Amino acid sequence: MSESVVAKEGVRGQRPGREASPAALRSGRRGGERTVVPDAEFASYYGRPIIKRDPWAASDIAGYFFLGGLAGASSVLAAGADAAGRRHLSTVGKLGALGAVSMSAALLIHDLGVPSRFPNMLRVFKPTSPMSMGSWILAVYGPSAGFAALSHVTRLFPRLGATSTSLAALTGPAVATYTAVLLADTAVPAWHEAYRELPFVFAGSSMCAATGMALTVLSPARHGSVRATAFAGGLLELAAARRMRRNLGFLAEPYARGRAGLLTRASEALTLLGALTAPAVRTRRAGFLCGGALLLGSALTRFAVLEAGRASADDPKYTVLPQRHRKEAETREEATPEMIVPTGLS
Amino acid sequence: MDLRRWPVYRQLTGTDRLGRGAAARSAETERLAPRTAAADRVVKSVCPYCAVGCAQNVYVKDERVVQIEGDPDSPVSRGRLCPKGSASLQLTTGPAREHRVLYRRPRSGHWEELDLATAMDMVADRVIATREATWQATLKDEDDEVSVRRTLGIASLGGATLDNEENYLIKKLFTALGVVQVENQARLCHSSTVAGLGTSFGRGGATMFLQDLQHSDCIVVQGSNFAEAHPVGFQWVMEAKARGATIIHVDPRFTRTSALADLHVPLRAGSDIAFLGGIINHVLRNDAYFHDYVVNYTNAATILNEDFRDAEDLDGVFSGLDREHCAYSFDTWQYEGMGGPGTVAASGDRDEEYEERTRKIRESGRGESHGAGGPSIGEGVPPVDPTLQHPRCVFQVLKRHYARYTPEMVQRVCGVPPEMFAKVCDALVRNSGPDRTSAFAYAVGWTQHTVGSQYIRTASILQLLLGNVGRPGGGIQALRGHASIQGSSDIPTLFDLLPGYIPMPHAHAHQNLDAFIAADASSKGYWGNMRAYVVSLLKAWWGDAARPENDFCFGHLPRLTGDHSTYETVLAQLEGVCKGYFLLGENPAVGSANSRMQRLGMAELDWLVVRDFSLIESATWWKDGPEIETGEMRTREVETEVFFFPAAAHTEKSGSFTNTNRWLQWHHRAVEPSGDARSDLWFMYHLGRIIREKLAGSTAGRDRPVLDLTWDYPVEGPLDEPSAEAVLAEVNGFGPGGTHLATSSELRDDGTTSCGCWIYCGVYKDGVNQAARKKPGSEQSWIAPEWAWAWPENRRILYNRASAAPDGTPWSSRKALVWWDAEAGRWTGHDVPDFKSDMPPSYRPDADATGPMGLSGTDPFILQADGKGWLFAPSGLVDGPLPTHYEPQESPFDNPLYGQRRNPVRQIHSHPLNRYHPSGSEPGSEVFPYTVTTYRLTEHFTAGGMSRWSPYLSELQPEAFCEVSPELAAERRLEHGGWATVVTARNAIEVRVLVTERVRPLRLNGQVVHQIGLPYHWGPNGYSTGDAANELASVSLDPNVHIQEVKAFSADIRPGRRPRGAALTSLVREYRERAGITASTGTEV
Amino acid sequence: MGLLSGPETDVAADAGHADPPPRMGFFTDTSVCIGCKACEVACKEWNAIPEDGLDFTGWSYDNTQNLGADSWRHVAFIEQPVTGGADGADGMRWLMSSDVCKHCTHAACLDVCPTGSLFRTEFGTVVVQEDICNGCGYCVPACPYGVIEKREEDGRAWKCTMCYDRIGDGLEPACAKACPTESIQFGPLEELRTRAQTRLAQLHVSGVSDARLYGHDPEDGVGGDGAFFLLLDTPETYGLPPDPVVTTRDLPAMWRHAGIAALTLFGGITAISMFGRHR
Fold first, then answer.
1. Where is the composition biased (Basic and acidic residues) (chain B) (predicted)?
2. A238-291: per-residue pLDDT in tens?
């Protein structure tokens, strides 16, 4: 019976329609109860992804990351070479850095929806935005690397050149690693959950790239510390990647499966090959092959990470299960980190 | 550049250090303002889609409409709009609209542009020529010449999407021209509502208004998908629910309405009478009826003629059935001691052959003429038995009639389990009576059957027994589907009616005005004033030419000789009788049953005029219609001339729509139409003007009505738009000295008053456009008397005298609506009393009293001849005084209730293009084993002309689809998301498959019934396209009002797309042969 | 208050708006949604959003599929067989829910936007300034709800603005205004949160035990949503993340790790080359 009363005096008992509770809303299932470990079978909305994958062109962005790393590490290499008085290595580092950073900037602009608005990147200074920070870092690094190279080749303004060289060497590592934050600072499970190790993967990968370039162009006599650096870079990348996948647990799946898996295996094989053979390089030809492997491996690493992230974005289970599990863990106090990994799935 | 405008500078100097807010504001953001704020003016309008009549605010900037949204002032919509209403900006300003007149020459394959004036002139010439060539002055019938003065060579279809004023001019001009085949969507949608409600209560409109649902204790939505077809109106159901009402949805499918109900009752399509009859039986058997209401306000106590035999006695048919002519004589259905309607209908020719007479009366669709006045019952006062014990009193007859509608029978017929059925009965009984009221809301799920009128009657009987009519929160809400479909029935663009539900004169039944009045007027109640209504109408049309000595030009009216409804017109087109056709905002090539027959009919025309927004299927069938693909039609062989006139939108013209609440709501012109787009008011007025100019000086008798016609409306604006207000004023009527009439009781039969539609009299009271009143609902009671104007006399709840007990006091303090104020000596209350305001409850008429004074102070149904609600209809309907369950024309079952399978007097046309399926146990019925039911979706509108061209609506429901249960999908290997082909004897269509639990197979009568749901919006043209469901439907009609049965028919379904070209026709032929279908299949009585 | 995560009492003021109006929001009560999609159309009409493609999905009545650049409201349809359902449910429920941008208290899209195109308005809502956006696309993978998207035709990112232009003029957003059953309610967030709690209790009393609020809690991973919901089943059933966390919550840690990695890179290379010199 309705509470509504139409009396002689007027109407009583109105209620807004939004307070209606039709019986058809009721469900037979009692809500609330859940199993300890979320089952692989979960209700998704017609299996469609919950988050959206990045809209980037892989070649642009992975290329941008790779070249950024190459440039950043090269600048450091170059500074070291100056200090060690190895002019040829320094030349390679500085020119390589300039070339790489210019190309990476070009790729970034190319990937914009409205390239003419690239300058808006410096419209604000946003610590919360890795891309904003990256732009500002590049704004410092780019010119430094550029002038360093210029003065190195022309031998003009040596003092200013030295300053630029060290400035580039100081900001270079940031250029090489901030891109890891750029990826991690998203809702993409395979990227975000990897935020602890990804910068090290990129750092090592950048070292491989820079040394790889040096090995390919320089004669063995002029390699100097490059081979050792390549070895160290390779190990750093591989170790970090290994640790990353272990901590990712069930979110490591995207790195192992499908295209991403293929790319990961290829990049790691090449990196391993390059890193292990680098110390033994004695001929120009060997240097070329070893360096090539390192360069390619480094590039593929970025593509692999990009692909893995996309795979994790496209399948709702990577978004839902960890979250649901975390939520249940919170509701049940005895949550432990290992339990982030739904046993059924890892 | 100014450094201070650099966000980084603002970050450093301002409080937004992180640059995430104030500092990041852009130049555009600083300038940001809503376009509504910049509008030059806001124009009050009304949504052009369904009949909820949501108010719209139209924002105009630089003479362009820039935004349309809901007007919060409206008491019915409260500013809300459904997706269609929300898309009206795209509808009215989108690129899909045509703005040029287009012309197609005979045998031509393309359109050419035509200048508007030339086109108007050409159309006028064709009307004149066709009219002359096909004119009928008299007909020879029963050995005597009778005058008919008409043409069957011209027909018109459409009006429900147009303004009342436009409908008025269409009916007025065409009638003067002698065109009788004037029809509109109301025929296809709600004609049976008029017959059903009219014969039960006296008026053919919803007895209540949408907002009043908020006071219901129980709402049964049946034969309607309320939430989907009338989303904004549904807010009032939610309001009732919020207050604790019980909401029940009875429907073959689980729909968006069911999703918000308390109980969904799935039943077999086409079995509603059995379901409602079951409830009636429950109410009677358990004495659960509202005794005092039933005894005093219904004809329960009235004693019937002793010759009457009920369906009980004759295995499913009533006494008086003439099987040879598939017709009933009504003589035995009468109250005891009363003359039969034979007296009435035959008006003096008492000795006329009875078969002849009944056939004519049946076909002329008299059922509808009770939209504003119950049928006559002849002279005298019938005997009554207030104890309800007399074996022949209506109450006892009713009890016997429904005795076999037991819960078990309901399960056998409807597939509804007894325990679920009991819940419905209990909810209704519990929520009815002095303290509580229940409401029924229905729509075309009830009307579109061969027994459509009887569906409505069943609900009326139930509501009368429960005492739910004329009371707050009680009644029957007929949900109308077009903006002004109520208006196009009130001011009818319908063949059988004149404005105000006055029947069109019949060639045989009526020779002169007096005979006509005698034939139809009842001696008692307000229908007793019929002569005043008719004379005033004739004065409005023929002005000074209408004089007492010439019967007020009654002779100018063309005469009917049977059924001239839209489906007859199609047959007439195929036979070459009808040669010219106007389509005014209607799309029969998609929207009418058996659309292939519609197109082939149009292909036989000499000329066709289409007025619409876009190039709808009915305008382009000659070049890209389905029959071109199948090779049945060749463009270069189609002789038809086609004119396309772009129509003006609701924002481009002023006028009134009559919504489902019976409110006349005025919408004001916001901008002028562009290009050649014009209002139908403009089109009809100027067409009439040109024709009159061309005929000026003619001495031909047939031209008199045209030349005598009052046709001098003031025109305004750059386009010479006739003044809609002037038309409304004529509709309202004038008294002596040109005063605007205030109420229909001022109408006189001496020619001193004129009135274009007596039930609308008062809408222009005091020279004020009452329909344009917009006092915000928030500032009024829920009755909202000062918002718009409701017919009759601004009464919002009809028969509201019944909200008070016979003594004039409210039945209960919870349900007070109007009551007798003894001191003041008048009726008063929340609503305008629907009663003679100063007639005390104690009033009793003398034996010789007539008219309103002929009824007593306790007779709430003031348009009924006896002032009672009719449980039993002694006259008015041609297929029985009591609703009886019959199977649909095409059904998988024999009738479990009676030997009589179908409505014996249903109207069918077996035609090579319109063959019927075998049913039930007939051999061949297994070829079409499934039941199809067609319906609408929220996202689209009727035949799609106003939605399939809109990208915003099309993307929401992009393709034609069917809904089937997982079980049927498995049985027929239908793949979810794939394609299926649905086949009948008429045609085959392809649709996408939506497999859903919402459609469940019903187990009944030891059989499993699978139902196929088919939305009918699509056609080959537009932005979202698909096959039309109406290709499948047959033309099988309700005999009272000629409405088609598209809610339940049989079909087969198979996986995959349909064949193309000639292979399609051969597939259908192969099915016909397999089922052994002949011309006589399905035609037996 | 937390600038990157956790409850934030005055989100607009923290974004530098001097004495801002109350934070405005949406409360979408899916229990009274009739799935009419008026919200989708009203939104498109007001914001002149392009049509989003004619795809028949077969996902019940949902042919919009998801939120994106060209669909700022999306009505989800879920047909649910109900086992041992309450009377009336007749063995099934049909859930309908109008999804929209959540206007998070801590909005990842806004945080990661490098141009300041995405910004926090004085109403506490999150809006894309289309005269600034350069289409870098970073906001897209950043959103934990998959709301914002880049429009291919013009290269910029688009999403619900909660009709910033309208509410600035005292009007309600187009979707909320159109909604026939007030399933979409617009108003001061605090008020809506209180109303939602009342409504939840009401539903529980009437036996709708599955009813739950979503995005209402300032303690959650995004600091509470500006547009929150009343759902009748788990969030993932509706395509919503069960427990989203704003990615920038971990940003300090990310920078820290990146910093160490950078030092390692610098130190490593330098050390090795220095070491090399001494040989």
1. 356-369
2. 999 999 999 999 999 999 999 999 999 999 999 999 999 999 999 999 999 999
**Chain B nearest-CA residue for C124:** B21
How many other CB atoms are found less than 10 A from the CB of residue B347? 22
Angle made by CA atoms B695, B698, B703, in degrees to the nearest 5: 70
Side chain identity at residue A273, one-letter code: L
- Beta bridge mates, B112: B103
Q: What is the pLDDT of residue A332?
A: 73
Tokens linked to B1077: 């279908």
At A144, phi and psi to the nearest 5?
A: -60, -50
Q: Specify the pLDDT at position B1085.
A: 87
Interface subset of B 773-832, CB within 8 angstroms of A? 781-782, 810, 813-817, 819, 829-830
The 8-class DSSP code of residue B335 comes to B
**Per-residue pLDDT, A35:** 36
For residue C76, which residues of chain A lie inside 8 Å, CB to CB? 45
- B:C CB pairs within 8 Å: 215
Cα C273–Cα C278–Cα C279 angle in degrees, nearest 5: 95
Which chains reach chain B with 3 or more Cβ–Cβ distances below 8 angstroms?
Answer: A, C
What lies within 8 Å, CB to CB, of C238 at 6+ separation is A45, C30, C76, C78, C95, C97, C99, C231
Residue B51: C-alpha distances to residues A194, B45, B237, B493, C181 (Å): 58, 14, 16, 17, 18
Nearest by CB to C59, from A46, A130, A132: name it: A46
CA distance C262 to A73: 10
Nearest Cα of chain C lies from the Cα of A156 at a distance, in angstroms, of 25
Number of residues that this document lists for chain B: 1085
In this structure, are strands B641-646 and B607-612 parallel, antiparallel, or unpaired?
Answer: parallel
What number of other Cβ atoms are within 10 A of residue B893's Cβ? 22
Dump the DSSP string for A147-162.
Answer: HHHHHHHH--SHHHHH
Is residue B57 within 8 A of residue B70, CB to CB? The reply is: yes
What token pair was written down for B327?
């017709």
pLDDT per residue, tens digit, chain A (346 aa), is 899 999 999 999 999 999 999 999 987 654 333 333 444 567 899 999 999 999 999 999 999 999 999 999 999 999 999 999 999 999 999 999 999 999 999 999 999 999 999 999 999 999 999 999 999 999 999 999 999 999 999 999 999 999 999 999 999 999 999 999 999 999 999 999 999 999 999 999 999 999 999 999 999 999 888 999 999 999 999 999 999 999 999 999 999 999 999 999 999 999 999 999 999 999 999 999 999 999 999 999 999 999 999 999 999 999 999 999 998 888 775 444 444 444 434 3
Rg (CA), chain A: 27
Report the candidate in C168, C147, C167 with the shortest Cα–Cα distance to residue C158.
C147
B632: its two tokens: 């049945």
Tens of pLDDT, residues B934-974: 999 999 999 999 999 999 999 999 999 999 999 999 999 99
Q: For the purposes of burial, counting CB atoms within 10 Å of the CB of A338, is it exposed (0-12), middle (13-18) or buried (19 or more)? A: exposed
Residue with token string 């030891």: B1006
In contact, A292 and A203? CB cutoff 8 Å: no
Where helices occur in B51-115 by DSSP H, the ranges are: 83-86, 88-93
Give one DSSP letter per residue of B792-837, joined into a string. Answer: TTT-SSTTGGGGB-TTSSBS-TTB--EEEETTTTEEEESS--SS-T
Alpha helices in B101-157 (DSSP H): 116-134
To 10 degrees, the CA torsion angle through B659, B662, B668, B671? 20
- The whole-angstrom distance between A114's CA and the closest CA on chain B is 17
Q: Are B486 and B791 in contact (CB under 8 A)?
A: no
